[in-house]
Write a structure and sequence with these properties.
Helix content is 18%, strand content 36%. It has helices at residues 13-21, 43-50, 53-56, 115-118, 187-199; strands spanning 2-7, 24-30, 37-42, 60-64, 69-79, 86-93, 100-109, 123-126, 130-135, 144-147, 157-158, 169-170, 177-182. The longest helix has 13 residues, at 187-199.
Amino acid sequence: MKVVATTRSAQGTGASRRLRRTGRVPGIVYGSTATPTPIELDHNTLFHALRKEAFHASILDLEIDGGSQEQVLLRDVQMHAFKPQVLYVDFQRVAANEKIHVKVPLHFVNAEISPAVKQSAAVVSHVFTEIDVSCLPKDLPEFIEVDLSTLSVGQNIHVHDLKLPEGVSAVSSENHVLVTVTVPRGMEEVQPAVAEAAAVPAAQAPAAGEKK
């Protein structure tokens, strides 16, 4: 994804406030061996880009003053307390041969066909929706898929259960619980009763016309 910015000469609280009134957002680019560069960006373009998940977990191509592009990661965003307004952004330069630490979103799939849901009407809860990973920029995934199709009651999904892409390792603790399964209150009694009824041999069932 491409980000277009221009260098920012005026700095300070007052200068940033005036900049925002013109529909621009102050920011900075730092990292690598280069000097931190104050920048400004178009607010509306940035605001809509921030609504895309990939913008937060992808290597971005930053172009400053129409020059050559450099690869960066979005590191921080400051939003107004109650207005839909971006106040400030931080970008970090990345080097192709240096590993980065990034939070990557998790995409949970197939919960509706899992035994926990189909057989026990359980509730599947997502404890975490992203994890911190380490990898080279070229190996950074936009998201990590978590397949819940075999999830059963009493089973949790941990970080160590994930199938990470090649070249990607988890920085988060391997024992962190990502998904839990809970049987709704009242269903604990219903499930054993249903199972017990199903286990009664047909021979024990009253014959047609027989009085109970």
